Amino acid sequence: MNGQGLPGSILVMADDFTGANDAGVSLAQGGITVDVMLHSGYQRDGRATALVLNSDSRALPQNAARERISSLMHSALKQQTPAWMIKKIDSTLRGNPGAETEAMMIATGATVALVAPAFPAAGRLTRNGECLVHGQRLTDTEFASDPKTPVLSADVREVFQSQSGMAALYVDLTTLRAGDLPALIAGYPTPLMVMIDSETDADLDAVIDAARQLSTPPLLVGSAGLCDALARHLAPVRRKRVLAVVGSMSEMAQKQIHHLHQHPEVSQVFINIDDVFTGDAQNYRMAISEALNGGRHCLVHTCPDHAARHQITALCEKWQISRSELGEKISAFLGELTREVINQSEPDALYLSGGDVAIAVSRALGASGFRITGRVAQCVPYGNFLGCGWHKPVMTKAGGFGDETTLLRVLHFIEENASV
């Protein structure tokens, strides 16, 4: 497949328009020019390194989907011979993933397809050969009864083999993570579809590594998660990182924290209130710095669960202070901890939830004011501190504002907005 086209060029076949955009966005963010074509009459102008075709075939009968993929690929391969070929499928296996993968393999001459549907950032994993959505088997979710393209099985191999006559091999996480995938594939006759379990972005990165080691280029088959992994390989960029400090114990703030509990790119650091009184912050500094230096967002909070907010009276009695004094003590600790962390591992933005924490951080940094630039998620003003050495974006939020997705949207805003 490679060797005659533009070095590093990419061709993606998606089965709907939004999926086509999802497939190309991470490549574009990495500086690669990406064109998404909406119909078969396109003409490649030579400026785009990545071409994403929309077959609009998800709801078609299988034979019609095969024919459309074959026709589009015939036209595409006349114009380029790409180094990387991707069949973008739905992360919940809707549509005709097996039929379209087979059609694309035949059109491209690929003898091996590496199938990794997982999209960890969206809660879609593959474990023991099955697709899970936020921990639920696919067939126990709403996707099983999709009005246009219902899914009848959570088993990835079963779905593909119900639509294709090609042999299919299942690969578990142990084999993938041990780096044994290329050697395993070499021992099987082709053509072959390889169904690969993946639970993290690192697993999807391992799929790309395996693809590079095969003697002939495989067809990559996956959702936006696998496309993102290819983007990380071809156009590595440092992810923007947010240091989020949540001092509020409101129910909504706790829901926002809980919503990020299993996010693969967010590390959570819980502050034990007893350490606030002893002043022991070293382990917290190290944990936060490790997360930020590792390219992850870091969420710092003092409330481990919904019940903890009702333990304030006991804490006040234990330390013989008033509720107001307790709040001031915690806020001051978080403010100083934030100052120390950003001096060691400078994040790309600060998110401060709770008025007391926001003012404590501003004092710790020596800020004299706040210049407002705009607003995120309708309830999160953002701007910059004035009069101090910290010039990067700062976002503030009252504890009870927003919904459970607000903090996640803040992280996405910083990741995607190059101007902040």
TrEMBL record:
Give the InterPro entries listed for this entry: 4-carb_acid_sugar_kinase_N, 4-carb_acid_sugar_kinase_N_sf, NBD_C, NBD_C_sf
Q: Name one Pfam family in it.
A: NBD_C
Residue intervals of the Four-carbon acid sugar kinase N-terminal domain:
10-230
Keyword annotations for this protein, in alphabetical order, are: ATP-binding, Carbohydrate metabolism, Kinase, Nucleotide-binding, Transferase
Q: Name one GO molecular function term.
A: kinase activity
Q: Which domain of life is it from?
A: Bacteria
> Where is each Four-carbon acid sugar kinase nucleotide binding domain found?
243-407
Matches recorded under NCBIfam families? ThrnKinDtnkGamma
Q: In which family does this protein belong, per the annotation?
A: Belongs to the four-carbon acid sugar kinase family.
What's the name of the protein? Four-carbon acid sugar kinase family protein
